Structures are given as C-alpha cells and as structure tokens.
Amino acid sequence: MKNILTTIYLLFLVLGITSCDQFLTIVPEDEQVLETYYTSESSVNANTASLYSALVWQDFNMNFIWMAGDELAGDLYYTYDQEGQFYYMTFQNGNSFLKEGWNGLFRVVSYCNNIINGMPAAASANGISEEIINRALAEARCIRGIAYYFLSEYWQDVPIITDNNISSDQVIRNKQSSVYEFIRRDLVFASENLPSTPFQEGRCSKYTAIGMLAKLHLTMASHLDDADSDSNFGLAKQYALQVINESSYSLYNDLSTMFYPAGNNNSESLFAIQCTNDGYGYGNGRNVSQSRNALITLGASWGAGKGPTLDLQESYENGDLRRKYTFMRNGDQYDNLGGGGYSYYNFSEDESTETSNEMLAHVRKYVIGANSDCGGVAGASNQDAGNNTYLLRLTDVYLCYVEACIGSGSSTADATALNLFKQVRSRAGLSWSASSITYDQLIKERRVEFAFESINFLDIKRMSYRNMTKALTYLNDMDRERQYLSNGSYNWQERNADNAYHGGFTSVNPEDDSSGEGSIFYLNPDVASITISAENLVLPIPAETLTKTPSITAEPVEYEFN
After folding, report:
1. Which of 13, 10, 14, 104 is nearest to 57 (CA)?
2. CA 173 to CA 555: how far, in whole Å?
3. How far is CA 41 from the centre of its chain?
4. Nearest 5°: phi and psi at 19?
5. What are the pLDDT digits (tens) for 328-351?
C-alpha cells in the first residue's frame, strides 16, 4: 500500500504555505488553477494528503497541544514564562501559545474548507468519479470535525467557518451545542464515504470517523442536564462497538516502539498527524522540547525543566509497564536512547549535564533519542522528529465504551466493558479481577494510559460537564504545586542533618555516588498553592482575534444548518 508520506510533498501545489498570523487563514481558491490541477485521482489524493501533514497542524502540534493537553491536566510540570502559565493556570488572552493553538486549529479548518469548496466541481469537470470526489470530501470533513472537536473543548463557543472568504465583521461565535452538531454531521458524512481500511497508510478510514463519533457522543452525553444525555451515551456505546467489533484495528502490544517512528500508523492508530524528518515544522518537536538533555538526543534539547507532576507519578501502580515508557526516573535503563543506551539518574558527578528537576523525573513518551536510536529521524537539529502524533488510538475507543457503559452512574458491570478494561491493563502488565469498574477507576486508568498524549484535559472537561465540583476537586486535590528542592552536594552525614533541619521532608535517593558526594532532595515547604476554578477550564479567545474580529465578542448564537 502506497504510503501517504509519498504524496504529502505535493501538498503545496494548490494549497501553498500561508501565514497563520491571521485568525482565519485564507487559502486562495483560484478556479483556473483548480480546474487545471484536479485532473486525476492522484492529484486529488495529493491535495487531501496535505491535511495529515505536521506542517498544516504545526501551530497546534508544536507547542499548544502539550501545554493545553498536559499542563492544564496537571500531568506535566513546567513553569517557564508563557509556557508555564498553562501549568499555573494564569494564562491571559495575550499568551502567544494560546494564539498559536487557536490559529493553528482554524488553519486546519481553512485547508479542509478549501478542498470541500473548491475540489468537487473542478474534479467533476475533469471526469473524476463521484466515488473519488466523495472520498476526498470525507477525508476533509473528518479532519475538519476533529479540529472542531478540539476547538469546542478548549474554547467551547467558537465560530463555525465553512467559507474561507468570510469577512472579519461576519465572524460570530456559535453555541457549543451547534458546534457539536456541526462536528457530528461532518463525521457521519465521513463514516459513510470513507473506506473500511485506509487506501493509503496513515489516512483516515470510516472507523476513524466512527471512533470520533463515539468520543463526540460521549462528550455530548456528559452534559447530564441535556435531555438527550442517555441517548448519546447509547450512541457512544454503539459507535465504539462498531470500531471494536467490525474494524481490523487491534491493540499494538510493543510499548517500547509505540511512540517511535517504528510504531507509526500501527494497528491501533486511528488518526495521527503525519510527521517527517524534512525540516522545522514537518516533524514532531517533542524529542527536542521534552527530552532531558543532549545526552539523550545527541543534539538540541530543552526539556530539563519539564517532568511528570508528583501526582501523576503516584497514579501508576507498581508493575505498570507504561510507567517506564511515559517518564524516566532514578535507575531506569533504556537501550534506545542516547545513541545506543542511556541510564537515568537524578544527578551525576558532572551535574552540568545531568541535573535533576523539581519532579525528580523527566518525560519519556515521544522522546526518541538520537538518530541511531530511531532510524535516522531524531530531528534533534530542526525539531522535526519522524514519529507521528496520535490524536485517536483504539485504546481510547475501548475506554470510551467503558465510560459510556457507566453513563450517568458511578460504575458498570458490563461484561464487554470489563473485558476491554482488562485488555488495556493486561498490555500494561496489570490484572483486573473486580466485577465492576467505577468512574473514578476509569479516569485513573485513562490518565496513566494517555499521560503526555495531550488528551487528558479533555477527560477533565467531560468530568466538568457531569459535575463541575467533582472536576475542580479532582484538579485541586492533585496539589500540582508540590516539588522537590536540592541542597547541592554534601557528604552523607551533612545531607541527612540538612534534611532533618528542613523539617524531615522526604529525601530521595540519599545514597552516595562513588566520590562520596551527591545530592539530597526535600519537598519544598514554601511553594504557593495553585487553586483552579471553573473559569480556568474554558480558554480565553486570543487578544489578537478580539482586535481583528470584534464581532466575535457578541453572545454566541445557534448555527443555521442548511
């Protein structure tokens, strides 16, 4: 099967690279160019291939996705400047990464609109079959639906844009319920017109759309005050079961390569941003932005200050195989990092290269090391690693089914839900013998499964729709401000005395290294509490957008569907 990456390079023949400084990126739709371009099935395929490219998703995928998805969720510790505002929940509408996320998702929408509006007539005039045209439309509508799903969950009431040439004074927000219906219509069309298996590796199938329908209806159902809540839980179960029972997708069992290029487009990847090692913006930036140091990548790295929050670390059970592939902590050994091997320790004799951070752990997921560790596509010079970014995995659909079975209650004893839950845990080396699954157990399982995949905040949003008080308690009970401090290098007696002096806070790794010197760590008693409120769960519209499209400040309205 021809790989989608072989056609992505043609994406700019019609679409081109456009500025994302504007809230709505206008992609020119020149009729003459379209008519002379859409002359064959391959030209149509080359155009839709662009929608999967990391370059089109760049502003969302490079930074915003993990700042909003992982920091807001209380999973990722990072405190630097505007990036750290997502951790502290202190972001304002002038935050540049907030603007990148908003603009980046609407950029994806604009590329989809270009194909939806410009391709059919031109392709039909050139004799391209209705089946090919509808398949291309289905890809564009599926991906537009996915982009709008993120927009609706981060910003709630957002403009539904179907025409790239809309004037700025016509941009108004639509109610979240309308956005959900818009997404639903896009995904239903996609499910009816996409093939059961991707016609090229990495493309959407009908089960991509159906899997997203399961997640969408689960989200809609979580608004428990909605009269359609129960029916939406039922539809979420129905759609999830379609993917589980009818598709050829299956769990991918090699945790060591799941987030490496070797795991790209594997058996459980329902939708992923396609990343290539072709320069800045084309690839996955996390190998550089989240790796601990240059000893891991043998190149650029600035993830020293990032790490799993202490609450996330405490969420993993003993023996959970996912833990080692999610974050690194003292004593971990990795064969496929650092150019053939890396041992993680909180400190070393050369503390200029192996410094600890406040979490005494660093990110592992999506960090793929040096070129020799990953087939030459580490991207440590240009932040363009060749490992895809997952937006929907089969495991997500499994656990969406479990959540739909719980419904508005607190637990489920559904036999299929129990079996799926056991399968997810079994891959992680864990068992499950209970006769039911509670909502809290499910949320914990989702957290450890999807940590650093930037979707856990969306789980918290669903929780907030069910019960805002429960969601805020969940977030605030994390005590995400907890962090360790180091006193520097001391001998054993001095370090123990110093630890006692600081009130007996927990020390970590007190053993001496070979020189008889090392570092001691204690919980910092002087950090300020981070308190999260309901207002923090809906992101503000970027300041630039408010300036350029002042009509967006009006009260949101229902969307008028044709």
Report:
1. 104
2. 7
3. 32
4. -65, 140
5. 999 999 999 999 999 998 877 655
8 Å CB contact between 84 and 78: yes
Q: How many helices (H) and strands (E) does the chain have?
A: 22, 12
Question: From CA 474, how far away is CA 465, in angstroms rounded?
Answer: 13
- Per-residue burial over 388-419, b = 16 or more CB atoms within 10 Å of its CB, e = otherwise: bbbbbbbbbbbbbbbbbbbbeeebbebebbbe
Contact 115, 29 (CB under 8 A): no
What is the number of alpha carbons within 13 Å of residue 402 lying toward its C-beta?
26
Contact 509, 330 (CB under 8 A): yes
Backbone dihedral angles phi then psi of residue 102, each to the nearest 5 degrees: -60, -55
Whether pTM > 0.85 for this model: the answer is yes
Grouping H, G, I as helix, E, B as strand and the rest as coil, residue 297 is helix
53 CB contacts (<8 Å, ≥6 apart)?
Answer: 8, 11, 273, 274, 276, 282
What's the pLDDT at 34? 67
480, 451 contact by CB (below 8 A): no
Long-range contacts of 340-347 (CB under 8 A, 24+ apart): 340/372, 340/373, 342/295, 342/296, 342/369, 344/292, 345/509, 346/508, 346/509, 346/519, 346/521, 347/486, 347/509, 347/513, 347/518, 347/519
Residue type at 212 in one-letter notation? M
Q: Check if the beta carbon of residue 201 is closer than 8 Å to that of residue 265.
A: yes
CA separation for the pair 395, 423 (Å, rounded) = 9
Listed residue (153, 172, 227, 171) closest to 557, CA to CA: 172
Q: Write out the H or E segment, with its range, that includes residue 361.
A: strand 361-363
CA angle 260, 264, 265 (to 5 degrees): 155
| 549 residue type, one letter | T
Q: What is the pLDDT of residues 258-297, one digit of tens each?
A: 999 999 999 999 999 999 999 999 999 999 999 999 999 9
On the 0-12 / 13-18 / 19+ scale of CB atoms within 10 A, 209 is buried
Alpha-carbon span 134 to 192, nearest angstrom: 9
Calpha distance 428→365 (Å, rounded)? 15
Q: What is the DSSP letter of 69?
A: I
Nearest to 186 by CA among 143, 246, 225: 143
pLDDT digits 0-9 by tens, 362-382: 999 999 999 999 999 999 999
Q: What is the three-class DSSP state of 519? A: strand
Cβ atoms of 454 and 70 within 8 Å: the answer is yes
CA distance 347 to 512: 11
As a whole number of angstroms, the distance between CA 71 and CA 89 comes to 9
204/192 Cα distance (integer angstroms): 12
SS3 content of the chain, % helix, strand, coil (to 5): 45, 10, 45
